[in-house]
Design goal:
119 residues, mainly beta, four-stranded antiparallel beta sheet, globular
């Protein structure tokens, strides 16, 4: 649960491990009873409205900043329970009528950096 992760004294500045990943997707079947925080920057190739989706084994939050500054981040999508790998519509136990794991369209400008965080 995200609240327990945030309450851990090691979060967010003293992780057990740190790694570079090629995409905003973490390895499957990594461990049991652990939390992850993925941070990075998004640089859209074209100006337009973008929609973000998140899926996670248990809970997740997707934060996006209005620019490159992490202080301006806002929660844009969250996984309130759990879903399968890349399962963005519904859950194994049914549908998600509020679609919390989908963001509203977000206008992004080509070539501009945006801070992104996934917990």
């Amino acid at each position: 649960v995200i609240e327990r992760l945030r309450a851990d004294p090691r979060f967010p500045d003293r992780p057990d491990t740190s790694d570079l990943i090629p995409a905003t997707e973490t390895p499957l079947n990594h461990a049991v009873n652990y939390g992850q925080r993925v941070i990075g920057y998004l640089c859209p190739p074209v100006t337009g409205d973008y929609q973000f989706f998140v899926s996670a084994d248990n809970q997740a939050e997707l934060w996006l900043s209005s620019d490159a500054d992490p202080a301006n981040r806002q929660l844009v999508a969250r996984e309130p329970e759990w879903s399968g790998h890349r399962q963005f519509n519904g859950t194994p136990t049914g549908s998600r009528p509020n679609q919390e794991n989908h963001s509203a369209p977000v206008r992004l400008e080509a070539g501009r950096l945006y801070y992104l965080e996934l917990v």
